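[Meeting: bench + compute handoff]

Bench side (C.D.) handed over the final construct sequence. Compute side (W.E.) agreed to return the predicted structure before the next meeting so the bench team could plan truncations. Sequence as handed over:
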Amino acid sequence: MASFEANTPQLKAAKRLIDAYVSLDLNNLEPVLSKDYKYEALPEVPGVPIQTKEAHLQMWKEVYSVVSKLDVRIRQRGTAFTLAD
């Protein structure tokens, strides 16, 4: 779980989302994403298209199948995900 003080609605939503990813369980992630969710890598990454919710969940299903731990560190200018096996 991410450890930061979630004392605003925006931070509570961000914490819930981060905790869902870090749980390595699609059953926790799927309900957090809206039905019309779209994932877009910014800045744009060549070869990484905008993903629908279903495509995004499928990608994470593949990632979760080979990862046993996901560390999240909050940085001053963004969030860094580190995959670990």
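W.E. noted at the follow-up: Helices lie at 9-22, 26-29, 53-66. C.D. will use this when planning the next construct.
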